Structures are given as C-alpha cells and as structure tokens.
Amino acid sequence: MSASSGVARRLSKQRWLDDVYNAATKKHAERKSRFSTLSDEVIEPLYTADDLEGFDPDRDLGFPGEFPYTRGVQPSMYRGRLWTMRQFAGFGSAEDTNERFHYLLKHGVDGLSVAFDMPTLMGRDSDDPLSRGEVGREGVAVDTLRDMEILFNRIPLDRVTTSMTINGPASIVWAMYIAAAEKRGIPLDRLGGTIQNDALKEYIAQREWIVPVKPAMGLVVDTFRYGSREVPRWNTISISGYHIREAGATALQELAFTLIDGLEYVKWGVAAGLDVNDFVPHLSFFFDVHNDFFEEIAKFRAARRIWAREIERRYHPTNERALLMRTHAQTAGVSLTAQQPYNNVVRVTLQALAAVLGGTQSLHTNSLDETYALPTEEAVTLALRTQQVIAHESGVADTIDPLAGSYYLESLTERMERGFDRYLGEIEKMGGMVEAVDRGFPQREITEASFHFQQQVEEGEKIVVGINKYATSEQTTIPTLAIDTEVERKQIARLAETRKTRDRGRWNESIDALRHAAKRGDELMPRFVECARANASVGEQVLVLKEVFGEYHDPGYF
Amino acid sequence: MKRPIRVVVAKAGLDGHDRGAKVVARALRDAGMEVIYTGVHQTPEQVVETALQEDADAIGLSLLSGAHNYIFPRVSELMKEKGLDDVLLFGGGIIPEADWPALARVGVEKVFPPGASLEEITTYVREAVPRKRGAAA
Asked: I need a labelling partner for B79 at 20 to 30 A (CA). Which of A136, A170, A427, A500 fits?
C-alpha cells in the first residue's frame, strides 16, 4: 500500500462519515446512542481498510498450519478432519455415567469427557461430612480405582480419547485412569486424552483448589514431566478461559488471563528443567464461546497468533508444535436462560458456529435444560445434532477460515492482541500470574466486569431475550433430569466396602511413600499411580497433600 | 438513628460458583446495606456462626450444585438452635421450582431463580427484613 493511496482511503471513510452517515443519522437517530460488543468494546458504524492501518496479511495472518497460525493450526483444518464433537457428561453413579458414555458413542461423539461431582473435584471422599448432599449431583463420584473401572467399563481406552475436567486432585484421578488401563493391559503410550489440571484459574475463577497456589503449580509441573515421558499422547493440561469467562470476565480478560496463565506454566516448567520442545506441545487450551459472534471469532484467532508469537519470542523452540494453540471450546453456560428455555437452542447454535469459524479443535454444545439441572438424554442429543448440522449442512467447514480479511473481524482481532499486550505488561510488572493471583488482581478485574455487565442488563443497555425484553409470564415446563438420592448412600457403601477389603499393608506403604515424596519434593505421579493400585481414595491422598503443603482459603473479594 | 440492614451473603457446601453471590453482595452494599460475604466452601455451621457474630438481619444463601435440599434446611435448623428467629433466610441459584415449597416449609422465605434482577432482590431484602423483625418481636 503506497502512502498516497492510504491517505485517499482514510479520506474516503471520513468523507462518507461526514457527508452521508452523519447527515442520515441526524435525520433518523440510530437504535442506540452507543453500540458495543458483549464485552462493552465500542463498535463503529462501518469498518473499512482505514481501520486496518499497520495490518499486514502476510505477517499477521499467514497461512493455515504456518506461523503465526491466525488462520488455523492445521494445514487443511476441517476439510481434513472435522473438530472433535465432545460432550461433557457425568452424573449419579459410575454405572449411570458409563451408560451415558455408551449412549453418546453410539450417537456419534468421538471423544468422552467426564464431569465429576463436587466432592471429587474438591478432593473429598463421598463419606466426608462436607460431601453431604453433593455426591453424584453435578457429576459422577469417583473415590477409588474401583469407581474408575466401572466408569470406563467396556470403553476401548486405546481408541477413544478421554477428557477429564478436574483440577486440584487432577494427578490423583489421572493416576487412577492410568492404573485402570494398566489392569486391562493397555500400554500407556496408547492412551489419549486431557486432564484439565489448570491450577491458576481455580484461584482466579473456579474455586476448586486444594492446596495453596505455589505447591499447586508444583503438582502441575509434575504431571508435565511424567506425561511427556510416560503418556506421550496425553495433554497434561487444558489451560482454561472457560471458567474465567463464566465468572464474569470480558472476552479480552478471558483471552489475556488464560494465555498469561499458559506463559506462567511454561515458565515454571522451564525453571524445573523441562525442555520446551518436549512439554509445551502437550499444553492445550479451553475457551468459552459466548453470544457476541464476531468478538468470539476474533478471540480464537487472536489467541493462536499471540501464543505463537509469545512462545517464539521467548523460547525459539525447534519443535514447531510448541507454537500451536490447540483448543477445546464450550458454548457459554452463563448465556442460557431458565425463562423460555427453548431460546437456548438458538443461542447454542450461534455460539457453536462462532467456535467453528474461530477454528476450534473440539467442541461441547450445552443443552437447553442446563439452567435447571444436568441435561436429559434428549437435550444432549439435540445439542450434539446442532454440531452435526453445522458440520455437514451449513458448508462453513468446507473452506479454511472463511471470514479472514473482513475489515471488522481483522480489526477486532488486532484489538484483542493490543488489549492482551496491556494486560501482559501489567501482570509482568507484578512478577507474573502467580504473584498477580496472590494480590487478587485478575479476581478483582473479573468481579468488576461481571458487575458492570449486570448493571447494563438492569438498565436495558444489554438485552437478554426473554429476561429484560420479550419476557412473558407463562411458564414453559421442560423435562429435567433428577438424581436418585440413593446414589449417595450406595456410593458411601461401596467406599466402605473397598476400605474393608483392600490390602491394608500395601495401602499403608503407598500412602507413606506419597507423604515422603511430597516432603522431599520428589516426583509424585508414580506415587499416585501406586496409591491408585493400592485402592487409596482421592480424599486420603489429598489429606496427605494438605498435611504437607497446607490449605487455601477464599479471600472472598467482591 | 436506625442502623443499616446487615446481610450475610454465603456460599455453603463445596460449590464454587460465586459470580451471582458476589454480584448480589455488591448490589446490596450499593443499596446502602452492610454486607458480609463469607467466601466459598463454608459449612452450614460456619454460615450461622458468621450471622451470629455479625448480628445479621438476613442470610442470603447461594447454591448452584444441587445440594440445596440438604444445605438450606440444615442452615435453617442451626439458625433455630442458635435462636436466630428474627433473621431472614433467603436463597438463590440453580434451584428447581419444584423444590421451592419444601424449602419454604423449613424457613427459606424466598428463592430467586436465574434471571432475577438485582432491583428485585434489593427491594425484597429491604422490605422483608423489617417485616421479619416485626413478626419475631
């Protein structure tokens, strides 16, 4: 672009604004005095080449499968292979969830994704006093290896990939999966999947912590080491923006905090002596996909470009895979409404479309009934069908990154990157994300944003269909899933049975070895695997960690 | 001078979903009330103890994990044990409407579903607290 043509273009947008647009809007006012994205970034009436000053397509977009990966991490993207349709499931007993897994596989999901119940997520056994009323409610209860074996009964662990959404006790639960596979004679290098294992975002947003931040980071690095050595097809972390967003963050905050978390994990891994080329390719990401269509697409594209640039700038890896920001996406639970629940199907469709146009590697679509309870089988099937219609009927998967070059989208993508740079500067000044979390910085930013959004809804600046506009008094009743209260009793009985029948000597030895290793700072994953084999429970192992590393308490920022 | 209404906004149980609780806490504070937010992972005992220590007029319990049928009645029971008869108990979160009547019977005076406005919640607390005090007196 020559300097003179740039000036001419700028003049042409300004000319249009002055002569045509301003005149017209003076006569007929626009719908709002201020237009902004869901994250409240101002939107101009029109985007032209003038808005892309300094944008260089060769440098900033490149080509699919090439640096900086803005257009996608794989050379052929969905023309080669569609994204993985992965529906998150887990409720009640291990038997119930196993049945749902078989149902999902029969209906065309390609990957399993386990939802654990609150006690398991918090590292507490089903018979812990704090687990009362929570067993099997929000997910499946896993106390010992026995539950893990039932959960994956007749599932081919060497062919299906499994994602496990668990963080504080991630290594303990992953070790149970490994022990279950081992008992079935499946070699560890055939196992594929992901553990969420993202400690930082627990303190930032999700609040399922067990020990303080620094020892939690140590546990994460321990899984990086073990994973790259023993389970090479496993993603040992899914660095998650999802919960950050659901807690009320803006799209930019979600992007920035997640990628800065990622950079913090890399820093800790390198400091522990791991090779960037070995462990960074095993880091994967997980983003929310919310209602603002273009803002969401821009977020995914910007995330790939930023990650590639930051890792290249800092570490110059020889393994190109270390530069790839591979991600899972899930539609925004927080966008669903209890009122007029069928509207949720439409929201999920738009969000799923944005995730696909953003180039995600896998996707979970929420069910219409999730503001009430865990989804019914019918609701889950509809959510899966939504993805299948997008994949096979809409045509959007047939060419790569079809929205590239849109003035608006590229401008939003650039804006995301600049916003990231500002947050990175601020957090680096504090000494990195661990320090920032200690000071409550991301926590406070999110709290502010979520309150601001709620005020906009209250004032009608942001419209939620069926809530602050087009609300009706009639009630739509939809079928919901009820969890049998017997689940808790049966689960506690099974745990008691395991405790009574397990080899006491082996259990003692495995727990002692874990305590010893934790105190000395030795590698813990092999110890967790041995604890799993000895039928030690999640809660028993977590107690050892709390004893050695201490506990974390909510500072309660609001 | 009448002192401002004091509200304990509490997250009991293992549930970590605190967005709603924090937004409500903030709105009540902005409406001139004194708000004590407990943070997540409190036991019912801790919640009631906080209300007692803080001389609270109301307890707002937030729960999205499905454990409300255990936790809400337990809080209510402990409130009675501690003599907090004039303290208003209300709640919000993912709580199916089918469960509301049973919760009302054990003393949860109001449940706010997802989508309830801050205005609605603030107005409710402002009106229900004096009513509760009057009824208990």
From this structure: A136
